[in-house]
Amino acid sequence: MPNQIRLTVLGPRGGASQHSGECDVLVTAPPGTVLAAITGGLGAALASTTGPPSGQGHPSGSSGGGESPVRSTSPSGGESVAVYAGSRRLDPQRQIVGEPPLTDGAVISLHGPVRDPASPTPDSLRLETVSGPDAGGVHLLHGDLIRVGRSVDADVVLDDPDVSRLHCVVAVAPDGAVTVADLGSTNGTAVDGAPVGDRPRPLPPGAVLRVGESELWLRSGALRAAEASAGAPPRPPTAAAGGAPTGATTHGAGVLGGAAGVPPYDPEPSYDAGPPYGPEPSYDAGPVYDAVRARGAAESAAEVPRPPAGPPSLPEQRRARGGIGWGRRRSGRESDRMPDQPTRTATGPMGNAGAHGGRSLPDAALPGAASDRGARASRGAHVTGGPGGSRWPDPAELLLTALDEGERRWERDPAHADALTVRIGTARYGSRPSVPVTVDLREARSLGLAGPRPRLLPLARAVLAQLTLLHPPSDLEVVVLASGRGRSVEDWSWLGWLPHLRPGQGQDCRLLFAFDRDQAAARTEELLRRLEDGPLGSGWVTAEEAEIRSAAAAHNGPSTVLVVDGDPGTAELRESVARLAGSGAACGVHVICLAETPPTTATSPLADTLSAAYSTFPAFRGCGALALLSGAVATAVRVVRRGDSPAGELATVDGVSAAWAERFARALAPARETAPSAAGDHRRPAAALPPAARLLDELGLARATPAALLARWASTADGAGGASSVSLVLGAGGRGAVATDLAQDRSHLFVSGGAGSGKTELLCSLSASLAAGERPDRLGLVLVDGAGEGLRPCAELPHVMTYLSAGDPVRMREFARSLSAELKRRGELLSETGYEAYVRQSAAGASTEALAGPQGSRSTGDADRGTLRLRAGRRAAIPSGGSATTALPRLAVLVDDFDALVDPALGNPGRPAAGSVVRALEAVARDGVRLGIHLIAATGRPDRTAQTVTDQSSALRASIGGDPSTDEHRPGRGVLHRPDGEVATFQGARVTGRIPRTATTRPTVVPLDWAREGDPPSRRPVRELGNGPTDLALLASAVERAAREAGATPPPPLVAAD
């Protein structure tokens, strides 16, 4: 399969030090394509862009001067185009498309470099904006004086209406000491809750600086040492020290999932804020410090409390400030650690369906508001030495984790205690540190967000960033529906970089977007079909609330988050979204609804906001939790849960900018899962079976190289715990490849299909999938053709020990004797244990015995030529450097036209010896599973083989081709019946066809239109190369080279070759 990557191309500099243009593009290229093959296409795509790009926040800045405009050239054109990733020029002949830095989400420039993002050193100082309406910024402290404020003239710009234009100044002394002073701000400055005046006050590492509604945390590489010297509470041990589990589902040291007891929240925590501040710094602040303070005081004097928000600064303006940048994080960040004890999330019990809040009361003086706030603190409140703790990471931590692939990336699977729990904001209670306010989508089922759009979108971005960073794509997909009037594609295009929006089986689009009514109808239909396939079945429309709640609580598989931005536009879409909001959680679908309303204030109470939201978007009534922006400037949020207090819970909102979201999404774009969740197969609804399937595509080996095979074999060995695998891929199913493992099922496979059904092709594919899944020294193949030579092409695989065509009675008898001898040899060795126990004991270091003759040598007499037959009393240890599976590999015996052996035709030259072969095969059917030998037999006449042991002992059964006399007959179309009664339909995969032309197509570069990514992709018919190699020959060559590199020697043949 060709690789596809999405990236952004920047043009050369213009006269005003701005790029002449930029364009998001989709690159499609065969594996191994070098950059030189697409440079012309990149220039042509950029030249064809006539308008501004749809994305936001692309890096700007360059160390080079202007260059001549890029001319449109063909991908094979001769014009040389210099391509840069940051300040690094890429080698067009060595750089591979799809390999770093030319991966998903990359930003490249033509003809000139761009400035690389600033990266902190291990000892660098930085301010992280950990909460507030413009959270997530990571600012490196390079200069002597750093001004914090709302003005674009500030060094750290915060889009917080409660922050003055120049609010405070942070100074870094030559010895590394950090101080802060207020610049006459309207709403004041505080450090760890203590007010800061106009004189410099120490700002130690780990301290929380509060300005307006925003909190900033001073971080340094020596923070752990600073915390220890200040007497801060000790943090949990790191995973490297052995104190915390590792892996994708780490909960943190001392934190366990499940229903563990939760200690109550301490109403007055006795955390130690550290020793009292010492005397003022001895160095002279100097006239520059005084000038900055005076200017800030003058500007703030004209302001009134809670000023309206000014226009947001451009991303380029924010990042152009000297000494301040979007930092990259080093490994081992302390805030990645989890709390010492489990705590409750901030979600309340689910009550009966009804209106939120129940009563219409003004925000002020609500009955029970004070006591409710105290009770709320115990739900989701988590206090550590940091600003709010890391159980629910702050936006700055999210960005740094995405940039540096931290341990917390994709840590939560469906079984995680905090799965689908999102942080909405932070609340303060007296002198205590701010605590996160969270909502669990599993309990709320759906979440409604309402408020003015300029503040609503930052909150939605922060929620989606949490979900996509903490949950892998195999466990969470995101669908965006923004088809209503006035909705902008630019508001959501940043999500297009994330792997969570890639479609799967049954989703006919390029990305899970819906920006028009046709796309919205397709996305909702896909989700409604999943709901119908779920536990409620076709009766989900009339299901009772208790049934829906029970099914939602029982769901433990992957989930889908459907983001609906405002009214979908049609009555049918409104009804579909409302049904998904109310019932979707039964199959793991959770809706996040956005409604544009005024904020809740004393003059516009909660009831008015709810009424406006309900009238704008009826699906709001189905949401179990609401986050309503509050206050005159909408920087507060009131979280209301169904069945809880009508007052809800008041907190400061967490929001992130569009530039932050784009940077975050691009950082996460190239990430891929190494081991997707086992539950991922059940995420998608069943799709229609394809008319044809290619085995290499189903195996994920479109690039069948020795390196890919070696990695696959290593993964199989790690997952099998030392035992070899007998993994079979039969073809394409409705939810991906249909596969089984004979070793895990402890069974044989029996295939039935008439003439023209494709059973021989299926056996060839099964042989190839076995070879692709295991090394030849751990798995041997024996091929038997009962009639004809359909399996002969598979003999090129290095795993094949013996190929037998049933036409020579002498060779057939010799084969039967050798196969029976192998069974006897294994039976004597494994008389007290089975094959799996033998492998486990050998792997544990127990004494093992191999049946190979004296001192480990095999007999070479004519009577047992090529066999591993045991002579009584002659046993030897496994040779040095070997293993149980290499000394005694598994065997898979594949037999085509078994019915021709059971009932050979008159005149068949192999008829006299057919009975001997059948008896040997039936012995394998009886005893082979326990001895590590598995049988895969196919018959064209099931009536002739129905009474055989081979037929009756096979728990796995597949029928293929259907009835040739009916319209349902289709070659390769089959049904697999598993031992547990499960049935899977599939389209058998081909492996003997010529490689498709798509494997040799030239790469293409096309401009990305995010608005059309939700449309069905255009497809070209796949044609085979008439004179090219077959997929089987290609795979056999790669397997042979991989086996040679791995030093995997196949076992000796049962019967000498012809």
Write out key terms for the chains shown.
1058 residues; alpha/beta; Ubiquitin-like (UB roll); Tumour Suppressor Smad4; Rossmann fold; 4 domains; ten-stranded mixed beta sheet; 25 helices
Supply Rg.
33 Å
**How can the largest sheet be summarized?**
11 strands, mixed
Residue share in β-strands: 15-25%
Principal-axes geometry comes out as elongated
The CATH architecture of the largest domain:
3-Layer(aba) Sandwich
SS element count, helices: 25
**What is the CATH topology classification name of the largest domain?**
Rossmann fold
- CATH uppermost class of the largest domain: Alpha Beta
Tell me the number of strands.
Answer: 38
Helix content: 10-25%
What does this structure look like?
With 1058 residues, this protein is of the alpha/beta class. The chain folds into four domains: 3-110, Ubiquitin-like (UB roll), CATH 3.10.20; 126-231 and 286-303 and 314-329, Tumour Suppressor Smad4; 418-669, P-loop containing nucleotide triphosphate hydrolases (Rossmann fold), CATH 3.40.50; 693-806 and 820-848 and 889-996 and 1020-1046, 3-Layer(aba) Sandwich (Rossmann fold), CATH 3.40.50.300. The protein is built from 25 helices and 38 strands. The strands form five sheets. Strands 27, 28, 29, 30, 31, 32, 33, 34, 35, 36 and 37 form an eleven-stranded mixed beta sheet that branches. A ten-stranded mixed beta sheet has the order 18-17-26-25-24-19-23-22-20-21. It has a six-stranded mixed beta sheet with strand order 4-3-5-1-2-38, with helices on one face. Helix 6 runs parallel beside helix 13 (658-668) and helix 18 (809-829) runs parallel beside helix 22.
